Amino acid sequence: MTPAATLLSELIAFPTQQAGPERGPGDERALCEHLAPLLRARGADEVIVSSAPRTDGSAGAYVFARWGTPKRIINAHVDTVPANAGWSRDPRTARLANDRPYGLGSADSKGAIAAT
Length: 116
Hints:
- The protein has helices at 3-12, 28-41, 110-115; strands at 46-53, 59-66, 95-97, 100-102.
- It is an alpha+beta fold.
- A hairpin with a 5-residue loop joins strand 1 and strand 2 (59-66).
- The protein is flat.
- The two termini are 16 Å apart.
């Protein structure tokens, strides 16, 4: 498996469903904390993990990383839609097919994060 596919499998395992009154607060921060040392290892000059309140009373988590001058920014979200009953397997356990991991958030947007 490629390094990006391995990282994506790790990211899929984090329960980052969208927060909401009927769904609870969500837990994006744990995934952001997981990404911070990986970004540092890839040469980021500065890495900050933070939370910000949402209008519904929940909080979203963010990881900011800065590289050099001019500054480069990667922008992606880590929350997912709630896993509905249509899954035939655990949506947070990556399933490999053709050496690619599939699972909740793999196409939007955890896959983009892993590929970057």
